[in-house]
Amino acid sequence: MAEFICLFGKDSAAIVIKQPKKSPLFLRMIVLVFAMVCGLYICSVCLKQFGYVNLQSSQLVQTSPIDSHSLRFVTRIHYPKPQTFNRDECGHNPVRYFAILSMQRSGSGWFETLLNSHNNVSSNGEIFSVLDRRKNISSIIQTLDRVYNLDWFTSASKNECSAAIGFKWMLNQGLMVNHKEIVDYFNRRGVSAIFLFRRNPLRRMVSVLANSYDRYAKLLNGTHKSHVHSPEEADALSKYKPVINSTSLIHDLQETENSAAKALEYFNTTRHIVVFYEDLITNQTTLKQVQEFLNIPVKDLSSRQVKIHRGDLSDHIKNWEDINKTLNGTEYEKYLRADY
Asked: Which one, of 316, 285, 278, lies nearest residue 300 by Cα?
């Protein structure tokens, strides 16, 4: 409250009103509130940047294709000096390193052919499918060094003038077991990770089972093909309808989602993006975003590969009624009718 002081002189009286002194406690409260607001803002920013650390598997399918980690880090450029050839006039052209991290039958083969249709990209296939290349962390590092030094030759190699060099790596090919050392390598060498997953793991399951069957059945004139280039070949392979184990189905779907979520958690500190197979098909801007992520000129990309299992899932699962009954009323019911 204000203080009132009355002064009486000979000729007049005056009332002086003194302003109250601001309480130190009040000032401290203002500072405390301001600090709390700033703290909440900083925490919200951090949560957005590190949102994958506590990502639940059921949230994975709702994730935006481009994670904030793709924007927080500047792409590192390199000037490799291969031992097996001379880059000649392209020696002064920078190269970006990348790796496609995925699961079998998630569209990685098709995605890689799209990237390789770019005249500045060399993606060298599933190099760690060979056991000797991933028998221990030393062999893994040696293989990575050969790839990123441009000393790895495949049909996709563009050698001298490659602007982005990489390969695809399945989660079950030593990636998760050695994730600490690989994350350290990625961060040290400036390797950008492209996670490629399917929003619908049930369709992936159909593809896995059908592909495993064809390894022995060889439905295309006695030849096994994981990928085809004509509608006739796709129709021939899609005639086989796998039987899915309905008893373990929900557990198997959970395991697939958990593996993807765990991979994102392990590689959270790397520069990375998350791309979904379904988005590549339905969203024309997704490929543009991938090219921007790699910092290469944006071009129209194409592939000769043809999708094998098209249309409703009910046309591709032999025991469809059992699967429909198992998933109806669960959180996985959406997979029964999702396209692609």
From this structure: 285
How do residues 306-315 score in pLDDT, each as one tens digit? 999 999 999 9
pLDDT at 222 over 70: yes
End-to-end, the C-alpha distance of the chain in Å comes to: 72
Does this model's pTM top 0.70? My answer is yes
- The tens digit of pLDDT for each residue in 43-58 reads 554 444 433 333 334 4
The pairing of beta strand 3-8 with beta strand 13-18: antiparallel
Diameter over CA atoms, the chain: 124
Phi and psi based region of residue 174 (left: phi greater than 0; alpha: psi -120 to 50; beta: remaining) = left
In this predicted model, what pLDDT tens digit does every residue of 140-152 receive, in sequence order? 999 999 999 888 8
DSSP 265: H
Query: What gap in Å lies between CA 300 and CA 81, rounded to an integer?
Result: 30
Q: What is the pLDDT of residue 76?
A: 77
Name, in order, each residue with C-beta under 8 angstroms of 146's C-beta and a sequence gap of 6 or more: 152
Statement: residue 277 has pLDDT above 90: yes
Distance, CA of 46 to CA of 44 (rounded, Å): 5
Let me know: does 194 contact 272? Beta carbons within 8 Å.
Answer: yes
User: Distance of alpha carbon 54 from its chain centroid, rounded?
Assistant: 15
CB–CB of 18/5 below 8 Å?
yes
Q: 160: which residues sit within 8 A by CB, 6+ positions away?
A: 85, 86, 87, 88, 89, 90
Q: How many CB atoms lie within 10 A of CB 243?
A: 11
